[in-house]
Structure formats: structure tokens, C-alpha cells
Amino acid sequence: MSSTSRGRLSLKVGAILFAASLALTACGATVNDSPASPDTSAGTDASPTENAGGGDLSITFIPKQLNNPYTDVVLGGGKKGAEEAGFTTSNVVGPLDASASSQVSFINAETQAGTSVIVIAANDPDAVCAALKEARAGGAKIVAFDSDANPDCRDVFVSQVVAKDVATIQLEMISEQIGGKGDIAILSATANATNQNEWIKFMEEELASNPDYKDIKLVSKVYGDDDDTKSFQEAQGLMQANPNLKGIISPTTVGIAATARYLSTSEYKGKVALTGLGLPNEMRSFVKDGTVKEFALWDPAQLGYVSAYAGKALADGTITGKSGDKFTAGDMGEREVGENGIIIVGPPVRFNADNIDKYDF
Amino acid sequence: MTDTLTPVAAPPALSATRGAISRTLASRPALMTYILLVLLILASTMVPRFAQPRTATFLLLDVVATLLMAMPMTLVMITGDIDLSVASVAGLSSAVMGVLFTGGMPFGGVVLICLLVGLACGLFNGLFTAYVGLPALAVTIGTLALFRGLALVVIGDNAVSNFPPAASAYATGSFGATGIPLVMLPVGLIIVAFAVVLHMTPFGRTLFAMGHSMEAARFVGVNTKRARLLTLMSSGLVSALAGVFWTLRYSSARSDNATGLELVVIAAVVLGGVSVFGGKGSIWGSVCGVLIIGVINYALRLNRIPEVVLVTITGLLLIISVVAPSVVASWSAWRHRRRRAREIDSTITTAGALSA
């Protein structure tokens, strides 16, 4: 008797829990940005082909992981782009951890949902490949953004910037700020950081070859390991070792913030120029107090924005992902698909006292 | 004497069979089956797109690794031990697989060596637990980190992905229109093998005995050390196999594969009725536990429920599955006590009335 009543109880508990979770589902479904549309989840037996072929276009963003501040800005731009581009439904799903395999079940769920466009930042280029191929077989278009998937399993890859552009914009800024001559130094992340080293290599080449920079001399390269304290100490050391230093380039957000903090409290404030790649929210006070005149970074929101438009162009058949295809990305104008299906969002944005308050990331 | 006994003997025998059947129907594994079926029916009717062959493919592929690891875990936990290193063994086996295959070794040989690596990991856990006498919890927390570290040493930050297409196709393929993954065949055989060992052999009975009391089992002549070693070795072996499957399914051999899976496995096994104190559990219950968690996750994910909610629900389910039986037990004990008290009360009253 007691064992049967226990049985009934557990059964009830199970059913209640599941019903509760399904009730949550209903709330979840209203979160998506469809203003007033018969969204895809309403149709019980909506088959993928119906969705892909019909007027109702849906887009789903799968970032590397959720709850990451940078990702949130990218996705904010994505939502805006998706709305403007004319998607009826836009969703964001994704894992809590950025492990290689964690995205696969989300791709599978989207395949089953018959989503027209999947925009993904791949945690592992190959781990997501089979699942993406299956999604494509079901009619979905795949846009990789931020971090590329294997080119065999996506239609296009939307990349933030070209490495060379990042290098040149930093040189332009430092040259403007120090009047085109003098000693400069670089305060980078770690000694083997792939991105930073690529940019530094381009900067060195440009300094050696471009006559505009013939009076600028790179005297030192130091590494703050993307650690706030270490970067601060390296900045301090840099000034003591090179009294004639006119400017510092820090191509990393941690480095530029720490260096700015050091300079703002030292006698070099306003005398030694500092530029590089920084986050507007971290740098705002240093721009306002005159420590930093101008720095740069790409606008992550633009990445999401262009990805959404690229997805729309693919779904409409305007582009197929081959080199030379062109489409219009809303306010940002025309973009062209390059080699290997890569679309470049654009040059980095320069932030200074005039525009910094317009950005929040 | 015999005359009077024969007629009354028949009904008890009948009711004994009936009792056995109703006991089976109300047992924990049966309960888990009902819950699983109710979930499947609810999901099919309430979740759009759930009732498709594709669901079978994706859902089962999602749970294969957990399902595999849950089998030896059931045995290990029934004896009163635990193996927290399962996911790390899978990671190590994945890393070894990547490195050996890039090194040019034939695929069959690579898989064999991966399985041997798993067996060695299990042997390591087993020796320290059974023969050195350290608690399995402590040993496998250590090897959880150790094996993951070794995986990183073996393959570093690299990822290997160019495995034979036929092997990857087998790991992700399914039986035509049914949607049931091809790998379910070997997985099914492994489940049956574990069920036979646990429920139909003397060895299986000794595992339950050990879970109830290691001392008592030893005194009745069970070779407890050997049994603990064997269960932990089976855990290493099957976890390595799960690692091989994981690598092929995601066509990516990396050191961080299957990270954190040990907790999912233990959660599923406990949900399936295995006692964390040992001595209780069944293979079918664990299979249901894995599938229940799999179905809930899958159905909710289809509806794009945020991952945070999913994790919360799994956690709640687990707590309820552990707490519910003891709540029910103490409730029926309380009812029993009250009934007894009332009986005693009434006896006293009648006795009082009589004496008065």
C-alpha cells in the first residue's frame, strides 16, 4: 500500500514538474521579438521547408556562450539588424559554457524548428560542422560570425575587421597625436598572443616602409599579460626606462586601461600620448580628463547587425556566399563577399571626446 | 491437518504471485518507466515538432555518452563507491585518440588503445580504492583532475578532426526512417550485458550485499576487494568507449571533451533510484533516469527555454528524487504510529470501561 502511494506521489510530482516547465515554455516563447506574427512555434507540424520557402523568415543567433558582456553587445546589434532586415522572428539560444560540443544540441533544435537563418559563433570549427550540414540540408542558411566554422559547413563568415586595418589605424592615431615624430613603445598582452602579435608585425612593417612614419621610432615592446597590475607596472617601467618617450600604443583593452590609469596620476599626463584598442566604458573618464585623446575599437554591435543582413540576403537568394556577391546592410551600406565567403564589417571606430558618450560597451 | 491446509494454501500462493506482480508494477524502475512514458506523451502533445523521427536521432545521440557511463556507475554506486573521474577518462581517451590517429596509426588500433587507457584508469582508481583502502570519493576527485590534466599533456590546445568519414558517419547515422541512431545497437547490448551481470548473476547479488554492509559481505566470504576493483575497471573501460563515441560524434578530439559530464551521469543514476549510500538501484531505473533528463532537456530546448532554467529543473528533479522517498517513508511511518496509538487508546478505553 505504502509503495503504491509512493508511486502515485512520484508520478504526480513528475507530471507537475513537467507541466510547470512547459508553462515556462509559454513564457519563453513570448520573449522573442516577433511583434504580431503567427510565429513558427505556433504551427505544430511546421516542416522546415514550409518555413524556409514561405514569407515568414526566422533567424536564430547562437553565440559562443550566453551572459558575456561583449556577446550581449553583439547580439543587441543582431536583434536590431534582424528587425530592420525584416525577419518575423528572431531568437537567441546558446550554452552556458563555451565548450566545443555544447552548441550542437542547439543547432539540432533549430534544425528541427525549421529556422531559416542560423547565425553562429563557433566554439570549435569542426565540432559544429556535422550539425550545421544537417541544418543546411533542411533548408537553413548558415552565417558564421565572430569565430568561423569550417568553411565547408557555412555559407558566409562575417568578420569584424581586417588585421591590417587594426594595425594601421593605431599608427595613424599615434602619429597624429605626437606630431609625426619621436620615440614610441608598445604595451601588449602576452608575448604569444596571436592577434596582438599579428597587429604588431603589421605595425613594424608599416613603420619601416611608410615614409610618413620615418621619424617615428619604436624603442620598446613590453608585455602586461592582460593582467591589470602587471600592465600598470610595465607602463611605469616603460616611462622610467625611456624618458624621451612620446607615445604608447596598447593594442589590448586591459593594457590601455591600466596604462591610462598610471599616466593619469603621473607627471606624464597629457604629455605622453596613449592610444590603442580600448572599451569606451573603461576609457571614458581618461578621455574626459585629457589623459587619452583618441583610441579605437570595432563596434561589436555592427558585427551582429551586418550578420543579420547577410542572413537575410542569403535567405532571399540575393547572395549565395561566393566571392564578389554584394548586398546592402541597412544603415551601414553595401558589403561585398570576399575570398572564402568572408564579409568584413568595416574599419575600427575611433573614440574621442566628441563621440564617446554615444557608445555603451 | 492436511485436509484443512490444502484449500487455504492455494489463495496465499495466488496472492503471493499477485503480490509479486503488484510489487514489480510499483517498484522504483517501474515508476521511472511510467514517468518517462508520461513525459514522452506530454512532450509529444504539448511541444511542437517533438513527435518526429528526428527527435529520436538527436535526443538519443545527446544521451549516448551519459547512458554508457551510467551503466558501470550504477554498479559502482550500488557497492557504495562512486566514480567521479568518468568524464575525465572520456577526455583522456579522446585526447589519446586524436594524437595516435594523427600519428598515422590505423583506426582500429587507435580505438583499442583508447579502451586500454580507460581500463588502466579504472585499474588505478580500483587499486587505490579497494586495495589501498582510500575512499572512492577522494580517489576519483583526484583522478578527475589527474586524467583531465593528462589529456591536456597528451594533446595540448590542439583539436584533431580528420577521422575516417565512415566512423563519423556511423557515430551520427540512424536506421533509415526510424530515426534511431546506429550506435544504439551496441549501446543496447552493453545495457543488456550490465543488466544481466547485476540482476542475474551471483556477482551482481554480492554488489548489493556490499552496498548494504561491506563488513557483512566480507564475513560471508565475498571477495569485496576484487569486486570493487572490477566495477571501477568496467567504469574506466566504458567511459573510454564513451570518449571514443564523443570524439566521433563531434568529429573533434580535444582535451576538454565531456567536461562536467560526471555530474550529469550521477544525477541521472540517482534519479533512476540508485541510492547514494549503496545497496539500492537497478539498470533499468538508471536507463530511465538518463532518458527522463534527456527528454526534459530536449523538449525544453526545442522551445528555446534558456539553459539556466534547464539546469535549475534538473537540479530540482534530483533533489525531489532523493527527498521524495524519505518524505513518503516518514509520512507512512507517522501514519502507522498514529494508527497504533489510536489502537492502544481504544484498548485502554475498552479496558477502562471494562474495569469500571
TrEMBL record, chain A:
Q: Which GO terms describe its biological process?
A: rhamnose transmembrane transport
Show the InterPro entries listed in the entry.
Answer: Bact_Solute-Bind_Prot2, Peripla_BP_I, RhaS, SBP_2_dom
Q: Where is the composition biased (Polar residues)?
A: 33-50
Identify the domain of life: Bacteria
Q: Secretion signal: which residues?
A: 1-28
Record keywords, A-Z: Signal
Ranges where the record places region Disordered:
33-54
- Show the coiled coil region(s): none
Q: Where is the Periplasmic binding protein domain?
A: 59-317
Keyword Signal listed: yes
GO MF:
carbohydrate binding
Its subcellular locations are: Cell envelope
**What is a single cellular component term in the Gene Ontology annotation?**
outer membrane-bounded periplasmic space
Q: Which PANTHER family match?
A: ABC-TYPE SUGAR TRANSPORT SYSTEM PERIPLASMIC COMPONENT-LIKE PROTEIN, D-XYLOSE-BINDING PERIPLASMIC PROTEIN
Please name the NCBIfam families in this protein's record: RhaS
Name the UniProt record assigns to this protein? Rhamnose ABC transporter substrate-binding protein
Please tell me the species this chain comes from. Tessaracoccus antarcticus
The gene coding this protein: rhaS
From TrEMBL, chain B:
Q: Which domain of life is it from?
A: Bacteria
Main subcellular location: membrane
Q: List, alphabetically, the InterPro entries matched.
A: ABC_transp_permease
A GO MF term: transmembrane transporter activity
Q: Where in the cell is it found?
A: Cell membrane
Instruction: Report membrane topology.
Output: Multi-pass membrane protein
Q: What residue ranges are annotated as transmembrane?
A: 31-51, 58-78, 134-155, 229-248, 260-277, 284-302, 308-334
Protein name, UniProt field: Autoinducer 2 import system permease protein LsrD
| Protein's organism | Tessaracoccus antarcticus
